[in-house]
């Protein structure tokens, strides 16, 4: 096994996930021989931000936050002899909400073991927000709002650059999530331009900021993508730039833990999140 853990895992606290209980994920991780698991549930969105998805189900409810933290902490103690469990979040970087994100991190940072900073929300030309990965149908509507597929891609990578550079305080997540998530519907909506150089510049910035990269296998199982986020050519470039590469399944069900890891390039050494020293 050339990986030791799954570092991007969701739970039953995710409104758009399954009802699998957290202990089921842990027991499955142990059965797979994993030594570590990071629960990176979607952090509650800023209270002054309106979730643009039809079901308002992009992230954990604020009312569940304390229970989530308490449950993970309890299970960390219960299973500490069998597997290392990391309490964490996947934070949405939303343009214009840096202070709200920083405030959340300041409040929860002392208990966070691991975290991911991702972009799912884009600001459209009229100043409204859209969720780029909700559905192919919604992505088609987003294209209409922006005027072309390429303009959506450009806004995604611009927002991702903002996330990488953002000053979110001392608890800013040290890993950038699925940097090619915009390709989720690429078999159906293909841009005209090649964004290889754009992505390489983002990798350079990730390296300068000393951040890690989420190597996310979920895209392999999306019918309009069927590729890792990011694909192997980008993984190789990141590797050569010295960027820490951390594998995650982005699983929303216990049975999907480490799914697709057998398709990760074995010749690349994958990392693990650094141990916290301030707990």
From TrEMBL:
- Entry superkingdom: Bacteria
Q: One Pfam family name from the record?
A: PHP
What NCBIfam families would the database entry show? hisJ_fam, PRK08123.1
Tell me the CDD domains matching this sequence: PHP_HisPPase_Hisj_like
Q: Indicate the family of this protein.
A: Belongs to the PHP hydrolase family. HisK subfamily.
The EC category is hydrolase
An example of a GO molecular function for this protein is:
histidinol-phosphatase activity
Keyword ATP-binding among UniProt keywords: no
Q: Which PANTHER family match?
A: HISTIDINOL PHOSPHATASE-RELATED (PTHR21039), HISTIDINOL-PHOSPHATASE (PTHR21039:SF0)
- The protein in question is named Histidinol-phosphatase
Coiled coil stretches, renumbered: none
The UniProt record lists the keyword Hydrolase: yes
Keyword field = Amino-acid biosynthesis, Histidine biosynthesis, Hydrolase
Could you tell me which residue ranges the PHP domain spans?
6-218
According to its UniProt record, which reaction does this protein catalyse?
L-histidinol phosphate + H2O = L-histidinol + phosphate
């Amino acid at each position: 096994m050339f990986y030791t853990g799954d570092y991007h895992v969701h739970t039953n606290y995710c409104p758009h996930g399954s009802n699998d209980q957290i202990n089921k994920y842990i027991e499955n991780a142990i059965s797979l021989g994993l030594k570590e698991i990071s629960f990176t549930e979607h952090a509650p969105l800023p209270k002054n931000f309106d979730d643009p998805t039809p079901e308002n189900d992009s992230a954990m409810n604020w009312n569940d936050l304390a229970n989530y933290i308490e449950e993970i902490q309890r299970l960390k103690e219960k299973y500490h002899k069998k597997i290392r469990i990391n309490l964490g979040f996947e934070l949405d970087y939303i343009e214009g909400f840096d202070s709200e994100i920083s405030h959340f991190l300041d409040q929860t940072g002392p208990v966070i073991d691991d975290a991911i900073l991702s972009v799912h929300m884009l600001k459209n030309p009229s100043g409204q927000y859209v969720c780029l990965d909700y559905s192919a149908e919604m992505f088609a509507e987003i294209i209409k709002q922006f005027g072309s597929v390429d303009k959506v891609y450009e806004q995604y990578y611009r927002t991702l650059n903002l996330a990488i550079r953002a000053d979110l305080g001392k608890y800013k997540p040290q890993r950038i999530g699925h940097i090619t998530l915009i390709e989720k519907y690429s078999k159906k909506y293909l841009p005209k331009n090649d964004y290889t150089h754009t992505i390489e510049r983002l990798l350079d910035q990730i390296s300068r900021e000393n951040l890690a990269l989420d190597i996310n296998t979920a895209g392999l199982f999306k019918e309009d993508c069927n590729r890792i986020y990011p694909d192997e050519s980008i993984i190789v470039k990141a590797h050569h730039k010295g960027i820490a590469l951390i594998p995650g399944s982005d699983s929303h069900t216990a049975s999907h833990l480490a799914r697709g890891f057998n398709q990760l390039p074995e010749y690349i050494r994958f990392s693990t999140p650094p141990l916290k020293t301030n707990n």
